[in-house]
Design goal:
mainly beta, Jelly Rolls, nine-stranded antiparallel sheet, 12 helices, 6% helix, signal, membrane, Fibrinogen-like_C, disulfide bond, EGF
């Protein structure tokens, strides 16, 4: 089989190999279709060449004659080359002609053995340099040691040090004696693999660039390094410090260094020529490499079988040693049979600890455990010794741990040792491997203190093996560099890596996509109401999420960003300073602030100055007494005040011409002894936010002042509504090539009536990426990164061409591709484990169509973002035929957010819920309008005659004014009280007809109606008891009749005597969402108390008592405010601990309530009683129920049969 065959080429010397070419055997059917390449300097310790750090195989030939050449992405420097066949023509055999391309490689090499050193002292420079460059290559078997140390005149030093196989860039402040160096960067991993690694360190005036192999990390330079002059470079042994030999041996470098250059000077070449600037100690100018043969266990079928003892007696004990490295937490390391009474020894990893078990007949006779976190990819030494009745297991000697036991039976090897796995001959319990297979590397195997020659194993002269890679360690660190973005924590096993995205604010296989929306506008259109939200202004981009307050109580959605003092604060001048400087720190970072301001349509900030004999800006011709700093970074000096224009050196009153002294342009500049103020809004985004205030005229006798800088407020999201309409299949927009080589996310909204069309396409030479509506119910995300086309599909159960907005989110990374459509389950396609992962595109990006102008999309695309960057569709559409900017019509998609009879009205960018016909308020008409009543509180609502309404000039909503011609009644309300009896509602007419809703003395609900003044009132009572229990109950009554007035808990002069007595008791409790036909009298009383039809007596307090979340309905209303940091700024302190203007906008959460509901309809006399989703229909006790067919009650079943008479019912 192929795993035992290879073709090895000795190039005679180290060569820079740039390409390989293969061809089949001449005139035959023999050729390779795929193969592996390996390189080595010595003929041992082979290293597999990988493309893109992932793909290990090379596609070969498809016939015997054509030549297939591959240029290596990174040239390989080696003397030996091996080609391993993977697959060949099934109709032939392995046949190969091979050619390599390259050029000679020359280098200067030096070996260091712990005590070796090379010290270079540069020539004194007459001036400081702003750039230094160090380059070198190294190889080592040790995972720690100082590779290079550069000391400066100022006592500072930079050092490159290996630690656990990673290369660290450290800054020491007191030369080499510093015990706490500052870590500047960390790069690389597994650098102790005895292969050459390239290192470059470049110091520029403002930053450092550290490169290890192909990866570079840029470090902002510390201020103390900006002018450093290096006077000494040390390689190898670290200088002795107070004769601390242990420190020297631990930090000294063991290995080879090649082509060591400093600012173009080849230090090893200088050392060879005995240059006086170089001092050398115990250095050899060649690379003496110790022979260390490793073996790689690649999968479940891998094992290595070795003879169990090298002595004649197998009962004398056992001594086995080896080293291993792995990323797996579990796996079998070693197993062997016991000689005499049977039993099996298992040495394995479990939870990254080393465990030993001895089994016999399926039972554990002995268990030991040692070590921890052994899956860190480092080499760990294991020793298993059994001698004189004592069994010892040791990991990493003094640095690790050990476990001991004294078994009652001898522990020795019966015949064979099995490493990593075992040949399974039968189903005997002791023959099965109860543990997972080991995947990792082993080396330095010893049995009875004799080293095992693994080359002999490879040559079939010793032991046996299966599925092994001998003379190489194939471990790969998939977390270096980490593919986890945005601070996600990378972990790995032997075959895959995993990103832990918790607490990062991002999700996906590589923590690429943000879990938060990009603006308050987006949260609103998800149906959210006011509150604190994290927004991520650039989605998957580098800017982190920020916490803001979203105020959604107005038609515009406001984003509010706080700073450290938004209160009105009295100025207290410093005796030693002529000016008072006040800084404002914001809850968001600089890049977050600027991005949020940039994407908003409008931003503003309140700026106020209260003064008494404290001038503000002086005249436009004079120097200002005070100014402020605003804009990006530290801000720029601004000499205008709130409400004025930039650069005007005026206040709002100067612009409006109404200052207290018309000779000045600010009220405070009048310099009067009375308090006055200059206030206004700063609305120029280029000058926002306010960073600092500088106040000047504050130290004169009698001068007093106070200031207030409000929070930053912005509304509108330019990205969220950026849209284009494609009206032809041949129309499209084109943009520059999309660059998403390793990770790409694409999100947008679309609406269409067409059954199919391509949303987006970008092509490369072979690679491509495309998202399309393939049918009216299916969206496909397809791409090719070199492994062949892959597709991810999402199927919808409802048509997608319904002219409603649908959201598409696609992501592709090195692990997987995902596609989300609206709220449907995400579809996932895993990437090949060993394949290409770079997406390489080179054509233009087409939106709404394709390069072939076929299968184009007809409809709207909105808010298109690629890797967090919004494409300006509207701007490009303005200059593109067949495409129009913008896309109206949002109520079809978002109208369902308007609740409780709220009407959706279109806006150019978005929609608005009109609550004028609803008893509710709020951005979605979702907030109950509730009030707490005392015994003396009442609200009277009087209908206006038609001529009065027509001549009324107010523009109040129809929920306040309505005509007096009533053809029927539709009454609903909610109440909460502990009072009985109590009158809830009374409706009367001029003709002494009335309708009353009350709680009688038995705590039951009672409806009285009198439709004929010549007849007695009729009474309907429910069987529901205990309605005066302090819980929330909802009542709905529907009837057809005439009515003139509506009254809530207020008796009239013509009221029925019994009801008048009941009304005189007053009502104590809560009423909410009172609705009578098209009007909402309680809402009118609370929101428009001065309107004509409303009159209020007694204290009426708006409350959240109508919500089930209100624990105490009679308690005073709690007002929630934004969390802020009130207090002093600088030396000022708050004058008024005022509630901010937006604090009242934060309300409690309206919860679903448990209620008793009584419904009246014009069919039968019954109540519908619902509690906790349990329906109970109960007959209503009534008086003369058959006498008035105009007023009867109905069950829910009956109501469903009258769609025209009962178009909608409102249950809370």
């Amino acid at each position: 089989p192929y795993r035992h065959q290879w073709l090895e080429v000795d190039l005679g010397e180290r060569t820079k190999i740039t390409a390989v070419a293969t061809q089949g055997r001449y005139g035959s059917s023999d050729w390779l279709s795929s193969y592996l390449l390996m390189f080595s300097d010595t003929g041992h310790n082979w290293r597999q060449y990988r493309q893109e750090e992932s793909i290990g195989f090379f596609p070969g030939n498809s016939n015997a004659d054509s030549v297939v050449q591959y240029k290596l992405q990174q040239p390989a420097v080696a003397r030996f080359l091996r080609l391993l066949p993977l697959d060949w023509n099934p109709s032939g055999r392995i046949g190969l002609r091979l050619e390599t391309y390259g050029c000679p490689y020359t280098s200067d090499v030096a070996s260091f053995h712990g005590g070796s050193s090379l010290v270079y002292r540069p020539s004194p420079s007459p001036r400081r340099t702003s750039k230094d460059v160090f380059t070198l290559k190294f190889k080592t078997l040790r995972n720690s040691g100082t590779v290079l140390q550069a000391e400066g005149r100022e006592g500072l030093s930079l050092s490159l040090e290996l630690e656990r196989g990673k290369l660290l860039l450290l800054l020491r402040e007191d030369g080499a004696s510093s015990s706490e160096p500052r870590r500047l960067a960390s790069l690389g991993s597994l650098l102790d693999d005895q292969h050459w690694h390239n290192v470059a360190l470049e110091r520029r005036s403002s930053h450092l660039n550290l490169t290890v192999d192909k990866h570079t990390e840029r470090v902002q330079i510390p201020a103390d390094l900006c002018t450093i002059v290096f006077v000494k470079l040390t390689v190898g042994a670290v200088p002795r410090l107070d004769h601390q030999k242990s420190v020297i041996s631990k930090r000294s470098f063991h290995g080879c260094i090649e082509n060591l250059l400093f600012n173009g000077h080849n230090l090893i070449e200088l050392a060879k020529h005995n240059n006086h600037q170089v001092a050398v100690g115990n250095v050899t100018f060649s690379c003496a490499e110790p022979l260390s043969v490793a073996v790689t266990f690649t999968g479940p079928q891998s094992f290595l079988q070795l003879p169990g003892t090298t002595t004649s007696s197998s009962s004398a004990g056992v001594s086995i040693g080896f080293q291993f490295r792995t990323w797996d937490k579990a796996g079998l390391l070693l197993t062997f049979d016991l000689p005499q009474h049977g039993g099996v020894v298992w040495l394995y990893l479990s939870q990254a600890r080393l465990r030993l078990q001895i089994h016999k007949a399926g039972k554990a006779l002995l268990e030991l455990s040692a070590g921890a976190a052994l899956n860190d990819g480092q080499w760990h030494a294991v020793e298993l010794n059994s001698k004189r009745g004592r069994l010892t297991v040791t990991v990493d000697k003094e640095e690790g741990g050990s476990a001991q036991a004294s078994p009652a039976f001898p522990v020795a090897v019966k015949n064979h040792l099995f490493f990593g796995g075992k040949i399974l001959h039968d189903n005997h319990p002791d023959c099965r491997n109860p543990f997972s297979a080991f995947q990792g590397c082993m080396r330095l195997l010893t049995v009875d203190n004799h080293s095992m020659d693994l080359i002999k194993v490879q040559q079939k002269q010793l032991g046996n093996f299966s599925n092994l890679q001998i003379d190489m360690c194939g471990i790969i660190d998939r977390c270096s560099p980490s593919r986890c973005e945005h601070g996600g924590r990378c972990s790995q096993s032997w075959t895959v890596f995993h990103c832990n995205c918790s607490d990062s604010g991002y999700n996906g296989a590589t923590c690429h996509s943000s879990v938060y929306e990009q603006s308050c506008e987006a949260y609103k259109h998800n149906g959210n109401t006011s509150g604190h939200f994290y927004i991520d202004v650039d989605g998957s981009g580098p800017i982190r999420p920020q916490l803001v307050y979203c105020n959604m109580t107005e038609e515009k959605t406001w984003m509010v960003i706080q700073h450290n003092n938004t209160e009105l604060t009295k100025v207290r001048p410093s005796p030693s300073m002529p000016h008072l400087l006040l800084h404002f720190g914001y809850s968001s970072k600089e890049e977050q602030l600027q991005a949020a301001i940039s994407q908003s349509e409008h931003c503003e900030q309140q700026l106020s100055y209260h003064c008494r004999k404290s001038r503000l800006l002086n005249t436009p011709e004079g120097s200002p007494f005070s100014w402020w700093l605003g804009g990006p970074g530290p801000g720029r000096v601004q000499t205008y005040w709130g409400g004025a224009q930039p650069g005007s050196q005026q206040c709002a009153c100067g612009l409006q011409g109404d200052c207290v002294d018309l000779q000045h342009y600010c009220n405070c500049d009048a310099d009067r002894a009375e308090w006055t103020e200059d206030s206004g809004l700063l609305i120029h985004k280029e000058s926002l936010p306010v960073r600092a205030l500088v106040l000047g005229d504050i130290k004169r006798p009698g001068s007093e002042a106070a200031y207030r800088v409000g929070p930053l407020r912005c509304h509108g999201d330019k990205n969220f509504w950026n849209a284009a309409f494609f009206d032809k299949e041949t129309s499209y927009l084109h943009f520059p090539t999309f660059h998403g080589e390793l990770s790409a996310d694409i999100s947008f909204l679309f609406k269409t009536t067409a059954p199919s069309g391509v949303f987006l396409e970008n092509l490369g030479i072979r690679d491509f990426i495309r998202i399309e509506l393939s049918s009216s119910t299916q969206v496909i995300f397809s791409f090719d990164v070199g492994n062949g086309p892959l597709e991810v599909r999402v199927e919808s159960s409802v048509p997608l061409n319904d002219n409603r907005w649908h959201r598409v989110r696609a992501e592709r990374n090195v692990k997987e591709a995902t596609l989300r459509l609206d709220d449907l389950p995400v579809a996932t396609q895993e990437a090949p484990a060993d394949g290409h992962f770079h997406l390489q595109l080179n054509s233009q990006l087409f939106i709404g169509g394709t390069a072939s102008r076929q299968k184009g999309f007809r409809g709207c695309i909105r808010s298109l973002q690629l890797n967090g960057v919004t494409l300006d569709l509207e701007e490009r559409a303005k200059i593109t035929p067949g495409v129009r900017p913008g896309c109206p019509g949002h109520c079809s998609s978002y109208g369902s957010l308007c609740q409780n009879q709220g009407r959706c009205t279109e806006r150019e960018n978005g929609f608005h819920c009109d609550c004028s016909l609803s008893a509710f308020s709020g951005v979605f008409c979702q907030s109950e309008v509730s009030a707490s009543f005392k015994s003396g509180t009442s609200v009277r609502y009087t209908f206006k005659e038609v001529y009065e309404v027509s001549r009324n000039s107010s523009a109040l909503p129809s929920s306040i004014y309505s005509d007096a011609t009533l053809r029927g009644e539709n009454v609903s309300l909610s109440f909460r009280t502990s009072q009985s009896p109590a009158l809830l509602l009374y409706v009367s007419s001029y003709y002494r007809e009335y309708l009353a809703l009350l709680i009688n003395k038995h705590d039951k609900l009672e409806v009285r109606y009198k439709l004929d003044s010549g007849r007695e009132a009729e009474v309907l009572r429910s069987r529901a008891r205990s309605l005066a229990n302090g819980q929330l109950h909802t009542v709905s009554i529907r009837r057809r009749s005439d009515s003139v007035s509506v009254q809530v808990r207020r008796h009239s002069d013509d009221m029925d005597p019994d009801l008048a007595r009941l009304g005189s008791l007053g009502f104590t409790g809560c009423l909410s969402v009172v609705h009578f036909n098209t009007i909402s009298p309680l809402k009118a009383a609370l929101l428009h108390p001065d309107s004509g039809p409303v009159s209020i007596s007694g204290p009426l307090v708006q409350s959240s008592c109508g919500s089930a979340a209100s624990a105490n309905p009679y308690a005073a209303e709690n007002t929630h405010h934004l969390s802020d940091q009130s207090g002093s700024v600088g030396s000022g302190q708050p004058v008024v601990n005022a509630i901010r203007t937006d604090s009242a906008l934060i309300g409690g959460v309206i919860a679903v309530v448990i209620f008793v509901m009584v419904t009246g309809l014009a069919i039968t006399a019954r109540f519908l009683y619902r509690r906790k989703d349990t329906y109970r229909n109960q007959e209503v006790k009534g008086v003369k129920q058959d006498d008035s067919p105009d007023f009867t009650f109905n069950t829910q079943a009956d109501s469903q049969n009258l769609p025209t008479e009962n178009p909608k019912e409102y249950f809370i």
